[in-house]
Write a structure and sequence with these properties.
By secondary structure, the chain is of the alpha+beta class. The protein has three helices and six strands.
Length: 134
């Protein structure tokens, strides 16, 4: 079993900070919002993006997949009452010459072995696509 530890603290009414290991990130906890930090919903989406990107680093060597680059675009829909994320969609864009079947295999592996992906898939409607850049 792996375990993770994150600490967060309120700096003031405009923001907070989360830390883990030697890293820190500013959090948008201002009721008016702020443009220079991720709010909690954006952090959730960023966590899914990071899961997809890190999963790619894990499976690309195993699949011997030729990868030049990758981008992930996400869209979340939040309902107000009760407040929760009701759906998340994503699009993975891969810079590669691999055939469509190999792109589908990469996507299947990212879905199957992603910790955050599987956690969110069990809690909300999660769907996405993978496509070749260009």
């Amino acid at each position: 079993m792996l375990e993770y530890h994150v600490s967060a603290r309120r700096n003031d009414s405009h923001g907070s900070e989360a830390t883990t290991k030697a890293a820190s990130i500013t959090l948008d906890t201002d009721m008016a919002g702020r443009q220079d930090a991720f709010n909690p919903a954006e952090m959730l989406l960023a966590s899914l993006a990071a899961c997809i990107l890190k999963g790619t680093e894990r499976v690309v060597p195993m699949l011997e997949f030729d990868l030049r680059g990758m981008e992930v675009a996400l869209h979340g829909v939040r309902q107000d009452s009760p407040p929760k994320m009701i759906s998340i969609t994503y699009e993975i864009t891969v810079d590669t010459d691999e055939p469509d079947a190999r792109l589908a295999l990469l996507h299947k592996n990212l879905q199957k072995y992603g910790t955050i992906y599987n956690t969110l898939a069990g809690a909300t409607e999660l769907s996405g696509t993978i496509r070749r850049k260009g």
